Structure formats: structure tokens, C-alpha cells
Amino acid sequence: MKKRTAKINRQTKETDVAVELNLDGVGKYQIDTGIGFLDHMLTHLSKHGKIDLIVKAKGDLNVDSHHTVEDIAISLGEGLVKAIGDKKGIARYGYSSVPMEDALANVSIDLSGRPSCVYNVQYQTEKIGDFDVECIEEMLRSFSNTGKFNLHINVPYGTNSHHIAEAIFKAMGQSLAAAVKIVGDDIPSTKGTL
Q1: Residue 176: closest CA among 32, 24, 39
Q2: Reduced to 3 states, what is the DSSP secondary structure of residue 172?
Q3: What is the predicted pLDDT for the residue at 2?
Q4: Which one, of 95, 139, 100, lies nearest residue 117 by Cα?
Q5: Per-chain mean pLDDT for the chain
Q6: Does 187 reside within a domain?
Q7: How many structural domains does the chain have?
Q8: How far apart are CA 115 and CA 100, in angstroms?
Q9: How far is residue 106's CA from residue 120's CA, in Å, rounded to a whole number?
Q10: Residue 144: which CATH number?
Q11: CA distance 28 to 43
Q12: Model confidence at 171, in pLDDT bands (50, 70, 90)?
């Protein structure tokens, strides 16, 4: 089987991002974004998705986290598209429901080639530490747009913002692992292409 890996480098006037991923990994990670909370979330994506992931980023954090978060998400999406290739043999769909103490996150993915992000999440705070929670939705929307997949996130309840976010990233990792899993040898679509 062809290696499903990718290396992406993205440089703008605001950020410098390098991402390496292996969809057939074991969940090893090296994450250094300059944003502690984001590092923590990306480790969960890697570990629970069994995706080997290296992310190195430098951004204009003197402004805020927004540009860095967005450009990491764009790079992850580009990496996913490159690594997954023609999608031959993949399961295509993935779903996971993950509890994290008081919070529950339900995440569904369809690697359809058509980007869409539905995000039904309510946080109790505007920040987790010094991280703006609005950056989470921005990141996931950018990831699904650039990665060209449907991403539906529903959190029916939760009181602790950290637990809510952590449950989302764990569930997203598990959903992505299920969707990229090789289960056959054809394109999983009646159209013959994704």
C-alpha cells in the first residue's frame, strides 16, 4: 500500500507553519505552535486518531492567536488532501461520541470532497486560559474547508469549557481515524469519484 503521508509548509507575512502527517501512524506527535492550549488539543487529535503528527508554527501571537490557528488548520487540511490521495478503499465516513467528565461531544465526518462545517457548541466562558474559544470554531471550519470534508460537531451539554474542547478534539481524532481507514479497494461513492 502506498504511504499516506504529507508534508506541508505555509509561509505568510503573519505565520510560518510546517506540518507532517502520517494517516497510518500510531499517534506519535511533536507539537509546538506557541499556543499551549492548541498544542494540547492537537496532541489529542493525533493520539486518538492514530495519526502521526508534527506541527511547528510561529505566528504573530503579539496580535492574537487567530492567524496562527487558522494557518495551522489550513495546513492540516492541505496535508489531509495530499495524504489521502484518490480515496480509493477508504471507509469515507467516521463518527465518534466522546464523554469528557461533564461534557459530551458527537463528531461526524464525511470525506466527500465537499466542505461543510456544522458547529453546534456552547461554551460557558470566552477563554480557556488565555485562548479565545472562538478560535476553535474558526480552526475546525478552516480544516474542513481546506480538507474538503463534511464536519459536524454537536455538543449537547457540558459546563467546563476545557472539557468541551477536549472532547471535541478526541472525538474528531477518532472520527477521522474511522473515515480514513482502508476497508476495500474501490472509491466509496456511486459516482466513482470523491
Answers
A1: 24
A2: helix
A3: 83
A4: 139
A5: 97
A6: no
A7: 1
A8: 27
A9: 10
A10: 3.30.230.40
A11: 8
A12: very high
In a domain, 139, yes or no: yes
Cell of 6: 504529507
Identify the residue whose cell numbers are 458527537: 106
What domain range includes position 27?
A: 5-180
List the alpha helices (DSSP H) in the chain. 36-49, 66-84, 134-147, 161-180
Query: Is residue 190 in some structural domain?
Result: no
To 5 degrees, how large is the angle CA 128–CA 172–CA 147?
105
Q: What is the mean pLDDT of residues 89-102?
A: 98
Residue 100 phi/psi, 5° resolution? -140, 90
Considering only residues 192 and 181, tell me which one the structure prediction assigns the higher pLDDT: 181
In a domain, 131, yes or no: yes
Q: What is the distance between the alpha carbons of residues 186 and 40, in angstroms, rounded to a whole number?
A: 36
pLDDT tens digits, 41-84: 999 999 999 999 999 999 999 999 999 999 999 999 999 999 99
